[in-house]
Amino acid sequence: MKSLLYSIVSEDTLKLMLDTFFACMQLPIQIIDSQGDYLDGSGQTSSFCHCFQRYLPASDTCEKMHASASKKAISLGEPYIFACHANLNHIVFPLITKKTFLGSILAGPFLMDSPDSILISDLVKKYNISTDQALELYDETENLPIISPARVNHISHLLFYMFANLIEGSKEELNHNHHKLLQQSLINESIQRYKAENINIESYPYDQEKELLHQVKLGNVSAANAVLNSLLGYVLFSKNSSLEIAKTRAIELCSLLSRTAIEGGAPTDNILRLNNEFLKNIQQISTIDSLCYHLQEIVETFSESLFNYIPSPNNELIHRAMIYISKHFNEVLTLEDVAKHVHLHPSYFSTMFKQSIGSSFKEYLNMVRIEESKRLLSNTDFPIIDIAIASGFEDQSYFSKVFKKYTGLTPKQFR
């Protein structure tokens, strides 16, 4: 029966790619199916492998190990370098489509250092190999290619570049898995930090929640994600990884984020529609890691929604200007400074900014500064004059005047 893989990718195309790889790298390479069984290849299978396979138990085959390593590569979202039963190295790259595992590209075997007696002695102990058989295996190690770790890393990248775009949607799915795994790593770091610092788990970190909303308002996606992962670490640490409790917190956070996006100027109807969709998706999620990753997507969507409503073709320029303002609002910042940053004449930039945002440059800058001052007033005990200066205002009197204009309260009343 013909492999499902060949119904999606031409057998001739795959064979040509394997032959090209082997001709350039002189490293055996093959295609295996989802069970780890051989489909095609280029380059001779190692004589060491033929010799060693005689000692493997029937329940623990190379095919099973290759299939297992392929699934690990899927979860990593990238090529996976692993050592087989014989302590020989391989690189495996999975071929997937719409979450269906079709098979893999398998390069190897190879060593990353010259073979020595330790390699064989380990196998002798593990598989009860006689002295004569061990000597035979040792002789066969001469035929194994030796590749430096740095070059192995380059070869794994080459496999990704060659095969990632072979099947439509495969690269996106692997990238999704890779980013999901990275987020889990960052959340775990946060959990370990809370454990080491012996944080009071009864006190929810509302300051982090406020900081998350603040970064979303600024459109700073990377900073918002960093705060989110720290916040998720706290939730999972304090509630013993309860999915239902995490979902409840996620729903609350989603509502706060949507309100923040609307307050920041994003179209209300679009945001409410997005929010309803996100809330439905949260209810259907069945694992903690999927919930965490979905929350990251929600944060990114709401952050970007504050900029995506700007009419084209000025979107990119205004977006860059707003990011520049978010990074430098606490300095002496003029319209000329920002116009220079986006390579526009000040008067033209001023007109474009007002048409796109609905506020003048000065009004928008003051709004950003007031948002920062509100955050500092809520979360610190700093004197009001210090908060005024930290937010970009030159004196307390002008700061108080602008603050009352935008909030209806004096800084003291707000605190």
Explain what this protein looks like in three dimensions.
The protein has helices at residues 11-25, 47-52, 62-76, 117-127, 131-140, 149-163, 170-197, 206-218, 221-238, 243-263, 268-284, 288-308, 315-328, 335-341, 346-357, 361-379, 384-390, 396-407, 411-414, and strands spanning 29-33, 38-42, 80-83, 89-97, 100-110. It is of the alpha+beta class. The protein has three domains: 4-168, 2-Layer Sandwich (Beta-Lactamase); 174-308, no CATH class; 315-414, Orthogonal Bundle (Arc Repressor Mutant, subunit A), CATH 1.10.10.60. The longest helix is centred in the middle third of the chain and has 28 residues, at 170-197. The model has no long low-confidence stretch (mean pLDDT 85).
Task: Give a summary of the structure in a few sentences.
By secondary structure, this protein is α+β, with helices and mostly antiparallel strands. Helix content is 64%, strand content 8%. InterPro entries: Homeodomain-like_sf (IPR009057), HTH_AraC (IPR018060), HTH_AraC-typ_CS (IPR018062), PocR_dom (IPR018771), Tscrpt_reg_AraC-type_HTH (IPR020449).
Q: Layout of SSEs?
A:
Elements (H helix, E strand, L loop, with lengths): L10 H15 L3 E5 L4 E5 L4 H6 L9 H15 L3 E4 L5 E9 L2 E11 L6 H11 L3 H10 L8 H15 L6 H28 L8 H13 L2 H18 L4 H21 L4 H17 L3 H21 L6 H14 L6 H7 L4 H12 L3 H19 L4 H7 L5 H12 L3 H4 L1
Antiparallel strand pairs: 1-2, 1-5, 3-4, 4-5
Helix pairs in contact: 4-5, 7-9, 7-12, 8-9, 8-10, 8-12, 8-16, 9-12, 10-11, 10-12, 11-12
